[in-house]
Amino acid sequence: MSGFGLAMLKSVELGLIYAIMALGVYITFRILDFPDLTVDGSFTTGAAIAAICITSDVHPLIGTILAFVGGAIAGAITGLIHTKGKINALLSGILMMIALYSINLRIMGRSNIGLSSNEQTLLTPLSGGFGLLGAMLLGALAIKLALDWFLRTEIGLSLRATGNNPRMIRSFGVNTDHTIIIGVSLSNGLVALAGALVAQYQGFADIGSGFGMIVVGLASVIIGEAVFGHRTIFHATLSVLLGAVLYRVIMAVAIQMELNSVDFKLLTAVIVIMALIIPMARRSAKQRAISRQRAQDLAEQGGR
Fold it and tell me: Distance between CA 83 and CA 36 in Å, rounded?
């Protein structure tokens, strides 16, 4: 396979792993309307737990499950700080993100853990060829479908209603504190799961690996919705998944164009801004066209 083809294959593989994180960000950003910055810390938590388990001869599957649990606990604490501590949602996430930096260092014992080639990870048996791509595609789709199912259950519907109209859902006797805690926990559990898989994919966990992950997650959600639409929950989660892959492909193309890595964050910001502006510009143009058509119709009716 050529250098460009291999780069595209790797970016799609990585995009499918990051799609799991983007689905977690989708829960807080779109479903709960909760600005959760815990993501930057919980991503590293997942990577740290998985790496320390694997280097301690714990089975990688158990390490990956523990990573999900660790992220979910971090999310639950953020939810508790917000709901029980009555602290602003944004500030709750920031405080938890700062706390997780120290917690992650405690878990890792140092700032970086490398996984040697002798250590087995979940992805080791799949390396080479298209095996990893197929496995990650099936895994991401399975998580997407499980999330679709969850959001149609009674708890999931309460979660969606909490984000849309918390006063209304409270009038029906639903405890919105519980739904927020559940949603933020599930979100950060998925983020940590992605962190664990990325650590196994890249062969290391670093204390700074989660920096900027919330922006990457938001970029995936916004790009996916702008390009592929989000009419239903099924379409919305599929768009998030495809958006994460598309984002990684764009980054891979930027690398192939020998763009300076220093400019990647700037490129991400520009992509997100364009993804936000273009749909709004389309809607405005459509509304103007409808208004012009109505004015023309009224003028024709008045002239008869």
Answer: 13
Of 21, 36, 20, 182, the residue nearest 96 (C-alpha): 36
**Measuring CA to CA, how many Å separate 244 from each of 20, 75, 90?**
9, 22, 24
> What predicted TM-score, i.e. pTM, was given to this entire model?
0.88
Q: What are the tokens at 269?
A: 């910001």
In the chain, which ranges are continuous DSSP H helix? Answer: 3-26, 39-55, 60-83, 89-108, 131-150, 154-164, 166-171, 176-202, 213-228, 233-256, 264-303
Angle between helices 233-256 and 264-303 (to 10 degrees): 130
Q: At what angle do helices 176-202 and 60-83 cross, to 10 degrees?
A: 150
Report residue 202 as tokens.
């890249």
The Cα 195–Cα 71 span in angstroms is: 9
pLDDT digits (tens, 9 = 90+) for 8-38: 888 898 899 999 999 999 999 989 988 899 9
* Paired tokens of 239: 């768009």
